Amino acid sequence: MRSYKVNMKKEIKFIPLDYDYFDYNSKNYLKIFGRDEDGKQVCLIDDFEPYFWVILNKDIDEERLEKIKKEIEKLEVNSDTRTTKVEKTSIENKEFLSKPVKAIKIFVTNYKDAHGIADQIDFPEVIARREYDIPLITKYIIDNNMQPLVWKKIAGEILNNSEEFGNIDSSLQVDYVLKAQKIISLDKTKSDSEFKPRIVAYDIETDDFEIGKGEILMISLYGEGIKKVLTSKKCSHKIDYIEYYKDETEMLEAFVKHIKKIKPDILVGYFSDGFDMPYIRARAEKHKVDLDLGLDGSKPFFSRGKLTSASIAGIVHVDLYRFIETVFSQYMQSETLGLDEVAKELIGEGKKNIEWKKPSKLSDDEWKNFFEYNLQDSLITYKLAEKLWPDMLEFSRIIQEPLFDITRQGMSQLVENYILHNLKKFNEIAEKRPLHDEIESRRELGKYEGAYVFQPIPGLYEDIVFFDFTSMYSSVIVTYNLSKSTLLEKKEKDSLEVNLEKEGKVHFTKEPGFFPEMLGNIIEMRKKYKSEYKKKEDNLAKARSNAYKLLANAAYGYQGFFGARYYCRQAAASTATLAKKAILETIEKIKKLDLEVIYSDTDSIAFLRKEKTKKQIEDILEKLNKGMQGIMELELEDFYKRGIWVTKRSSESGAKKKYALIDEKNRMKIRGFETVRRDWCDLARELQSQILELILKEGNEKKALELVKRTIKDLKERKIEREKIMIRTQLKKPLSEYKAITPHVIAAQKMKEKNLPVHIGMLIKYFISETREKKELVREKVKLEDEKGEYNIEYYLNNQLLPAVENILQVFSINIEETISGSKQKTLF
DNA sequence: GGATAGCTGTTACC
DNA sequence: ACCGGTAACAGCTATCC
Protein A748 CA to nucleic acid C4 C1', in Å? Predict the structure, then answer.
């Protein structure tokens, strides 16, 4: 006789955090980790009914349809572990690429075999088989409305030593396991602010940068009420947060023990997918420490791919670096995305400064410093996580994908997931992911014609107005209905015709397509939340607005991206073409008002205000907007007191994407100049920005010229400090793959020889030195920061300082080289 | 054998 | 491979006359 227990019924409020799935009796089940309203850790078990679609022509006759359905119901796939059958089918009227279709919904035993079943379906009436390639968790969230980080009411029964699922509850380290029976969505607005995740930040220090090669010297943890440094090293200082362990093994065991005790919702690191977690795994393996951090007793899981991601069952491991890289980097001032710079910019606090030494050479006090340094890294990582929490939360809610995924996905994946989760509203069946060959042929098509850039005339200008189109490309997509599903095979009545360079004339229907409609909605949501947080300070509204803004901005790139499900080159190319047309027409209209247009790039137009008042300019803007198509809108970016455009280095013509402005509050806006390029030395960058400021503030070049002369004098007298002449260039690929051996490649090679860490993405720092023999190539004069040697005066004069200033002074007809050599001659005489 | 066009590579703009 | 095209420019390198 089997003993069996009656499970207790319970109704809870639940917030899903982390999703996982498992098989039981050949079927798929979800394990969803989260918290209840009392803050208890819960694992929810839910079943999942996997299915995919077979799409048929909508005109197929009923009899034939029934026959196909019956045939499909006979299919099965056998493997060593299970048999997957077609469980049931249903015939539905759906949309595919915005066109009505007949579809058979095919439920299968196990989702992993959906593709295998789909492959067997091969009737001539079948147009397509779809949705077997959508990740299981994504599909589950869509079908069961179990959106991450949104409170749900769940009725279910508590599993207690249950026979069900092979006693799964006893292996899960949560407060209780609930088998879901009914899921009810709540009015989420009420409880939104209530959930505060338990966040713990961690960081390790090692004695070798190569993963697993060295020893982990210490691990720090920081969170609310948590402040720890675990170490196997010795130091006489007794500090409350330092825990000393006998060796690395015990330290790692203590790390696991602490995490289990803290029970964090989120474990956050900085570059921890690529460093901390793999290192911990490697050392734990070496010492045979059981790294069972997962709430199901599992070890961290490392996904394969270009970038590995480290996941822990039931705990959301967030590598903040990755989230910042995709979501924030474009709006940040930092030149690198290192923890120090990023933290300084976002939370106003950076890393602790210490001098790096071999651990064997550290004194007692230096060890203490090292522990503090390690703790500080966790502390600022924690603060960053707190600061970015609203953004992570909103991204996860809007995209409707788990936190783990949205913090690691690129913009195209985020857009795609947003689409997948919103297709339901359109009754749409999802398009498939392109296969390898398809991607290849898409890529082979090469580029299409893009944005318009106005050819500027070099000079100093006064009273400049900048107009720009709000979310221009998105507005174009929405206005003209440009997408894969609205592209027509041939011209139709009332359709839009766009003439493209390569593909000739293409046509789009006026019948609304889901992609432009979705995008229109994104733009509206962006507007809504922007005005909401402008009215009153609200971090969540701001984060929400920002998330929608990023989605809107990425939508155009998505349609042009070869890896996209809804890739449509014609739509992307047409977007660029129509945007170009709109900006050119607007330029013409402004010119007709007797205003002088001096610059334009993609979605912005700069012109001279002349005698017109600001009010008159605003009236002009209003008038221009009245004549605008669809949701296209031009806005006033700003008024500028002065601006300068320079020539290209190689010719007399004006350089595009390179100008500097000053507004009425003396705020500078510098674009494209060496000042904003991190691969130029600080000496040149600082001099350039100073002379731009002197010129723009007063509209006169005399002081600027004096400053240039003084700086050159200092350079020649070797008064420039080393830091100012360092050149930083990023290593973008493995050293061996470089065809062109440039200075930074040489510098990286030198670093490697010195056993310094060299990895992709790193900024290589070097300077150009004097050499004994005459050397032609710059790379032959490369030296690392700590190498002995004088800087090369000729190089820094001719390749850094002069190039940075000559085009600017040229605007005032000053030839700096002649001026310098002239003054030299004067001193000679 | 010196000039230079063209390529590789990085970083910017939008 | 992990969103698009446009553009400037440095430094190296193949090619030309």
Answer: 31
SS3 A516: helix
Q: Which residues contact A204 (CB under 8 A, 6 or more apart)?
A: A216, A217, A218, A219, A220, A275, A276, A279, A280, A374
- Nearest nucleotide to A556 (CA to C1') is C4
> What is the full DSSP assignment across A720-739?
--HHHH-EEEE--S-GGG-S
Q: How far is the CA of A816 from the C1' of B6 (A)?
A: 30
Q: What is the pLDDT of residue A6?
A: 61
Q: Beta-carbon neighbour count of residue A383 at 10 Å?
A: 17
Please report where in the chains the tokens 């790390």 appear, as a residue.
Answer: A255
Helices (H), A423-497: 436-444, 472-480
Lowest-pLDDT choice from A135-144, A159-168, A248-257, A355-364: A159-168
A433: tokens are 């992911």
Q: Tally Cβ neighbours within 10 Å of residue A237.
A: 12
CB contact at 8 A, A599 and A659: yes
Q: Are strands A41-47 and A176-185 parallel, antiparallel or unpaired?
A: parallel
Question: Distance, angstroms, CA A470 to C1' B8?
Answer: 36
Q: How confident is the model at residue A724 (pLDDT cuts 50, 70, 90)?
A: very high
Q: CA A413 from chain center: how many Å?
A: 10
Q: Which residue is nearest to nucleotide B11 (CA to C1')?
A: A677
Strands of A83-198 (E only): list them: 83-96, 99-108, 126-130, 152-158, 176-185
Radius of gyration of chain A (CA): 31
Burial letters A366-376, b for 16+ CB under 10 A, else e: ebbbbbbbbbb
Distance (Å, whole) CA A604 – CA A673 = 18
pLDDT digits (tens, 9 = 90+) for A326-350: 998 888 889 899 999 999 999 999 9
Does at least one atom of strand B sit less than 7 Å from the CB of A603?
Answer: yes
Residue A605 forms beta bridges with which residues?
Answer: A467, A600
3-state SS, A281-298, equals HHHHHHCCCCCCCCCCCC
Please give the Cα distance from A754 to A389 (Å, whole number).
40
- Contact between the CB of A71 and strand B at under 7 Å: no
- Tell me: the pLDDT tens digits for A75-110? 999 988 899 999 999 999 999 999 999 999 999 999
Nucleotide nearest to A800 (CA to C1'): C10
Q: CA–C1' distance A823–C17 (Å)?
A: 39
* A826 beta carbon to strand B: under 7 Å: no
Closest nucleotide to A606 by C1' from CA:
B14
* A771 CA vs C16 C1’ separation (Å): 31
- Quick one: which residue's CA is nearest to B9's C1'? A740
CB of A776 within 7 Å of some strand B atom: no
Task: Find the residue closest to C11 using CA and C1' atoms.
Answer: A742
pLDDT at residue number A266 = 98
In whole angstroms, what is the distance from residue A636 CA to residue A625 CA? 11
Q: In which residue are the tokens 């969230």 written?
A: A141
Nearest nucleotide (C1') to alpha carbon of A646: C8
What residue is closest to C1 (Cα–C1')?
Answer: A563
Q: Gap from A693 CA to B7 C1', in Å?
A: 36
Report the distance separating Cα A204 and Cα A218, nearest Å. Answer: 6
